[in-house]
Amino acid sequence: MLGNMLETSARLLRLLSLLQARRDWSGADLAERLNVSERTVRRDVERLRDLGYPVNATRGTDGGYRLGAGTAMPPLLLDDDEAVAVAVGLRTAAGGSVTGIEETSVRALAKLEQVLPSRLRYRVNTLQTYTEPVPADRPGPAVDPSVLTALAAACRDQERLRFDYRAHDGTTGVRTVEPHRLVSWGRRWYLVAWDVDRQDWRTFRVDRVEPRVPTGPRFPPRDPPEGGAAAYVARGVSAAAWRYRSRVVVHAPAEVVTERVNPAVGVVEALDEHTCVLHTGADSLNTLAVYLGMLDLDFEVTEPPELIDHIRDLTARYARSTP
């Protein structure tokens, strides 16, 4: 009898963990994961409901189970690595750029560390003690945590999103997008999404987004932008901030140059098997010239004229420096 109770309790914990890991589950999928019948799944779902977990069920061919929102936060099941990750994340968020989240993070961290086993508390303290972030050069814009969670939910649920967006020049407009990923870069947050009206990928600063409710219909997933969301943001944000943009013909295969170029500072296009074009830029001509020299490859600068003149001056200076 006791063995059956322990087996049922362990299965309920496993079922709860599965429901927390994904938004929707079919009865057949849960039965397969738990190695039980669908009838047993239905009984276990009822047991969870009796314990206060709001498990919603839908009928039909697309029916299944979903862990809904209740009146109170139910206990979460975390494995060791997840518990450490949450604790480290809360400590980091305590000094982050999300409005009002510092004090909340400290309170949540206190609750979590109170119940952490000593072995996990040691791992968390070790990471915190021997990790030191470099302070930002200047404070980033504050982000409303409710906006972050709304955008993350729309990405997860693959639901169209409409929001008011304030451009860098202060103008506002309504955008309709299929959200893909949130990207954190330094102290700024960006949303990478497919712009429905412009039929192309776009990057949006989260601190300039005001979501409209409700969200729109669900959409099928698209192939992500080349290199992934983080690389797409890095390319776009860096290029937008460059004072000087350059087009450089590099006498090397594109794959060789790509290995030496961070996606945040350049885009490589193949011309033929032995030559490619590098589109790059920087805030100063000196930085751009040094960066091109560090490629350690033969190249030709075709634009801008200022960079061509600057490299000629550097060539003459280096020539004078040797007897």
UniProtKB/TrEMBL annotation:
**Superkingdom of source:** Bacteria
Ranges for domain HTH deoR-type: 8-67
Annotated SUPFAM superfamilies = Winged helix' DNA-binding domain (SSF46785)
Q: Does the keyword Translocase apply?
A: no
What are the protein's UniProt keywords?
Answer: DNA-binding, Transcription, Transcription regulation
According to its UniProt record, what is one Pfam family this protein matches?
A: WCX
Single Gene Ontology MF annotation: DNA binding
Q: Does the keyword Signal apply?
A: no
Q: What is this protein called?
A: DNA-binding transcriptional regulator
Taxonomy-wise, where does this protein's organism fall, top ranks first?
Bacteria, Bacillati, Actinomycetota, Actinomycetes, Streptosporangiales
